[in-house]
């Protein structure tokens, strides 16, 4: 997937202070993601939905009745919580998703021949999005459970080769390139 490049016009003049400050800005962090088994991603998504449904159960008072509505409400909150644009070319299927506040350590991508699963755990308030290791000693399982999560399960328009697919996360954008099965020689 060709990523856009930023080109500055030489006609634009900037003061020396302006030039120094623009050089001091960090470039977007580009991370290549390890793809996971989509079944594992779906099980993680199931766990997220079940935890959220349990939270709804406790919020309305722990009494019988309404379990299905709790579950459906949790699914509405989590599933397809962020848009994913799919584009199909002669040789590839491309996916582009906006996942602000997510690092490579907090996202799981699973690809199967006709399915794409994305599970994103957004960075909690006060935690650094650029340095997840800086917060490693301060986080607990409870902190991770309270983090905002988004799940996306998509049927792909064509069969793809999951083994040759790649996923890159850069500056809150997730780009995935999946070779089509019918284009493999």
Q: Would you mind describing this structure in some detail?
A:
The protein is an alpha+beta fold and 185 residues long. It has a domain at 30-37 and 79-183: Immunoglobulin-like, CATH 2.60.40.790. It is 26% helix and 26% strand. The chain has 4 helices and 8 strands. It has helices at residues 16-24, 38-59, 67-78, 141-146, and strands spanning 30-33, 84-88, 92-98, 107-112, 115-121, 149-155, 166-170, 173-179. The strands form 2 sheets. Strands 1-7-8-3-2 form a 5-stranded antiparallel sheet, with no helix packed on it. Strand 7 (166-170) and strand 8 (173-179) form a beta hairpin. Helix 2 (38-59) packs across helix 3 (67-78). The protein is globular and about 55 Å long.
Helix content: 25-40%
Order of strands, widest sheet:
1-7-8-3-2
Which sequence of SSEs, written as H and E, runs from N to C? Answer: HEHHEEEEHEEE
- From the N-terminal CA to the C-terminal CA, the straight-line distance is 20 Å
Text of the CATH class of the domain at 30-37 and 79-183: Mainly Beta
